[in-house]
Amino acid sequence: MKKIVYAFVIMSLFITNFTQAQEEKSSDFKRWQVRLRGIGVVPNESATIGIIEGDVAISNEIVPELDFTYFFTKNFAAELILGTTKHDVNTVGSDISAIGGPTTFNVDLGSVMLLPPTLTAQYHFFPLKDKKFKPYLGAGVNYTLFYNVKEGSIVKGVEYDNAIGFAAQVGFDVMFDDTFFVNFDVKRLFLKTDVSVDATNLAEGLIIPAEVDINPWIIGLGFGMKF
């Protein structure tokens, strides 16, 4: 929990410093925007699995997502995204011959839901193409909670550690007018978690540890409104 607090404090100081350095006295712009997007979550997964070895496979998913952005100036903003996904998980090419199974086997680890609130500081470039096209870049922090874990039909249980990571993004808005717009956004989360698989139903005392890199791409398309 301390890591989360420290990361979000650093983000707040980062945004504040930018704001003070770039302060604008005019208020002729809308400071808030909200977007509703459909996002594709594409894990770029890999794992180090103890005892049975092998790798991991995590399913791609498409879900709705809601996000809010506050503009400190016309160029500097902070974005918070909210959404949750459910992913199927299994090992790939594991060796369970030591417990009476085949040499190569994919172990079904059921499913898990992820809630990954992500806060990014953004720089919005000056509008291009008659003020319709507005690109931006962002970087920030992410804290992912793993919940509603279903262990599947093979092992007794699976536990995931909640994890903090970093995020990078690039995107653009295309304005219909000064209020409504369409948005395209790509994020990369740098996220890893420690996993513990309880396989004591297969062999006495068998707990399988794993370090899993999820590192998903998040590709979003949707509509927004400034106010």
List its traits.
mainly beta, four-stranded antiparallel sheet, 57% strand
Q: What is the oligomeric state here?
A: single chain
- Please provide the count of β strands: 15
Shape assignment: elongated
What is the strand arrangement across the widest sheet?
Answer: 1-4-5-8-9-11-12-15
Query: For the report, how would you describe the main beta sheet?
Result: 8 strands, antiparallel, barrel
Radius of gyration based on Cα positions: 21 Å
The DSSP helix count reads 1
> Can you give the helix content as a percent range?
under 10%
Average residue-wise pLDDT: 90
Unreliable spans: 21-26
N to C succession of SSEs: HEEEEEEEEEEEEEEE
- By helix and strand content, what is the structural category? mainly beta
Assess the beta-strand content as a share of residues. Answer: over 45%
Distance between the termini: 34 Å
Descriptive overview:
By secondary structure, this protein is mainly beta. Helices cover 9% and strands 57% of the residues. The protein has one helix at residues 2-21, and strands spanning 32-42, 46-49, 55-58, 61-71, 76-82, 85-92, 108-115, 118-124, 133-150, 157-160, 163-175, 180-190, 192-198, 207-213, 217-226. The strands form two sheets. An eight-stranded antiparallel beta barrel has the order 1-4-5-8-9-11-12-15. Strands 2-14-13-10 form a four-stranded antiparallel beta sheet, with no helix packed on it. A hairpin with an 8-residue loop joins β13 (192-198) and β14. The radius of gyration is 21 Å and the shape is elongated.
